[in-house]
Amino acid sequence: MICYLFYIYFLQINLRCLDGIQGPVYIGSGCIFRRKALNGFDPPKAAKRSQIVQVHSKQDENGEDESIIEATDEDKQLLQSDMNTENKFGKSTLFMNSSLTEEGGVDPSSTQEALLKEAIHVMSCSYEDRTLWGYE
Question: Which GO molecular function annotation, any one, does this entry have (predicted)?
């Protein structure tokens, strides 16, 4: 005789951003992928007062910095990894910015049409072309 039991687990999970930009996270078979597993970093923590540093992005053909971002020491590593997110996660700035916020979500000033267009872009089959998805 074969016997097995079903154990029911109650998990309290807040599924944010069901708009297709930042969620939902993968949940199944008793496992939950945290944001660090999906995006490569944890969400930002509450800001602490610390030294301000500058993070420089790639240089253009003239050798000048394309952008300079000021940040705290703790966020320096996060920002440097963010500059490579286009290679990792594609060219959706809305998706990348939403992944950097602690609570997820998008800019409240975004229109529904823009959010829908961006969500369709992110879920398209060609979105991860020329990125590192599936290689790292």
Answer: cellulose synthase (UDP-forming) activity
- Report H helices in the chain: 35-39, 73-83, 85-89, 93-100, 112-122
Query: pLDDT tens digits, residue range 26-53?
Result: 555 655 555 555 555 555 555 554 444 4
**Adjacent-strand bridge partners of 32:** 27
Scanning the structure block, which residue is given the tokens 């000033």?
A: 109
Phi, psi of 29 (to 5 degrees): 55, 40
The whole-model pTM stands at 0.39
Task: Decide: helix, strand or coil at residue 56.
Answer: strand
Instruction: Tell me the pLDDT tens digit for each residue of 91-124.
Output: 777 777 766 665 656 677 778 888 888 878 777 7
Residue listed under structure tokens 């990348």: 96
With contact defined as beta carbons under 8 Å apart, do 78 and 43 qualify? no
Distance between CA atoms of 49 and 40, rounded to whole angstroms? 25
